[in-house]
Amino acid sequence: MDLRLLHGPAITPHIEDLARLRIEVFREFPYLYDGSLEYEAEYLQTYARSPDSLFVLVLDHERVVGASTGLPLSDEIDEFKQPFIEAGVDIERIFYFGESVLLPEYRGHGLGVGFFAKREGYARRLGRFDFCVFSSVERPLDHPRRPPDYQPLDEFWHHRGYQHLPQLRTELDWQDLDESSQSPKPMSFWIKDIRP
Ligand SMILES: CC(C)(COP(=O)(O)OP(=O)(O)OC[C@H]1O[C@@H](n2cnc3c(N)ncnc32)[C@H](O)[C@@H]1OP(=O)(O)O)[C@@H](O)C(=O)NCCC(=O)NCCS
User: Fold this and answer.
1) 140-183 pLDDT, tens per residue?
2) Does residue 129 contact residue 94 with C-beta atoms inside 8 Å?
3) Best probe residue, ligand 1, of 60, 109, 172 (max atoms within 8 Å of C-beta)
4) What is the pLDDT of residues 56-72, one digit of tens each?
């Protein structure tokens, strides 16, 4: 397995692979994303445009089987910047994590832990960030598509040193498997202080 770190426009040759991977993995609860290559192309453009974005790609014989992303929050879309601006936080000091996605057969071997280590290390090396932040979707406990054996990632994130900020919220539009068009999904943020 090959771990490849790419920045900004260098992702361009892999955008379609990454889009396919996101569509496949995010069909699962809690995302339930009925993805399209069109939505993906727009989403991934934000990262491709940001010179300081990071893509950690996991390749198995040149097939993208996992990926994790991040970028300066100031390069993100308004939905992610606005809650911090309204809270009076300097967004120039925040590095934002996009997703971590791995095909199921590659899980449980430490790659997810590695995604956090690689992204935090990169944010520290850039030298201008105090915090790493990401957001997660909130689904009701009685959601009809919640698998009975679903394990939330909260513990996994706590173990990586992240604190949930349930009061810091946003909404992001996408189309769920049960929907015929996009609708807003509630998201809340998690944060870690990466200062030495
Ligand atoms: C989130 C995700 C990327 C995690 O990846 P993963 O590679 O399975 O995670 P890891 O194996 O690194 O870590 C999971 C746990 O196994 C442990 N672990 C690490 N190495 C291990 C190994 N060799 N063997 C067994 N367990 C191991 C980790 O310590 C961690 O436990 P901890 O939180 O108690 O420390 C993966 O589950 C996924 O793609 N999920 C679906 C998409 C998603 O929900 N993404 C997150 C939001 S964008």
Assistant:
1) 999 999 999 999 999 999 999 999 999 999 999 999 999 999 99
2) yes
3) 109
4) 999 999 899 999 999 99
Best CA proximity match to 113, nearest among 80, 153, 73: 153
pTM: 0.95
Instruction: Please provide residue 150's backbone torsions phi and psi, each rounded to the nearest 5 degrees.
Output: -65, 130
Topology, domain 2-193: Aminopeptidase (3.40.630)
Q: How far apart are CA 170 and CA 5, in angstroms?
A: 29
Which of 58, 80, 100 to mutate to test ligand 1, by most ligand atoms within 8 A of the CB atom? 100
Does residue 32's CB lie within 6 angstroms of at least one atom of ligand 1? no
Identify the pLDDT of residue 62.
87
Terminal Cα-to-Cα distance of the chain (whole angstroms):
32
Pair 186, 169: CB distance under 8 Å: yes
Strand partners, 71: 96
What does the pLDDT read at residue 129?
98
Q: Is the CB of 67 under 6 A from ligand 1?
A: no
- Determine whether the shortest distance from the Cβ of 110 to ligand 1 is under 6 A: yes
Is the predicted pLDDT of residue 103 greater than 90, yes or no? Answer: yes
Residue 108 Cβ < 6 Å to ligand 1: yes
Q: Is the CB of 158 under 6 A from ligand 1?
A: no
